Task: structure prediction
Amino acid sequence: MGNNSKLVLKGVIPPLVTPLLSENRIDRVGLERLVEHVIDGGVHGLFLLGTTGEGPSLSAKLKREVVNYACNAVKSRVPVLVGISDTSFEESILLAKHAAECGADAVVLAPPYYFPSGQPELLEYLRHIAPKLPLPLVLYNMPAFTKVDIEVDTLRRASEINNLIAFKDSSGNMIRFHEYMTAMCYVPDFSLLMGPEELLAEAVLFGASGGVAGGANIWPELFVSLYDAANAGDVCNIRLLQEKVFKLRKVYSCGRFASSGIKGIKSALALLDICSDFMAEPFHAFHLTERKKIKAVLSDVKLI
Result:
């Protein structure tokens, strides 16, 4: 879709997993199948190299390849967002430039995740990096992993940065999300996106622009239907769809560790013959016991 500072993000934007064949090889065929799978399911955009995409675990070479292959596969049918979060200021800028060259539409940036910044330091960082980015910027709040929780006033002040067009909140704090919505309701064309998919319907009902639902990798139609129902205020339909969301989310708890969410999505996609379930280090794909649990969840929601 090309560089467009007027880009307005809305709807369901899955944080795409990164299909891998080995530590240094992208599962390109699997990635292309996954792109078709979610676009056919009606999603409104794609987010590459986020948490679900194992962005922080991938080499610079693999990140560039993912962006290149995915943009080629999307062919401008929906906006492509690229995660550029890094501990290095310069690496974020380099990846943003590559994303622009490949035809991506926006970049997504979480606070640098080794040295935690104070709120004034974060604002200063954003004001320094934003003018160096060739694409519109989405700010990403992921306090569990970055050790920085973006405050409401920080977002309000950051929204004055020219190319900042959206905010994705993965804190899971719904009270705070309502405060973000109140603070940002007078900022024209600014998108607020919900991270946790269980809160997508509630967020949209109260005015959010959409959500970044990991489960949409597996069952995009479900989350698109949920977004549409919330957008229309159809509470009866929301309740039925939400029940399916909670059944599907069992794929996230088939393992014992924090990594089980991404492992679960990748395992489900492998069972659906969409892409490989190979994981970037330090993680590894589920064993047979967990795969059987994933298969049971997919069977329960009638995907297999």
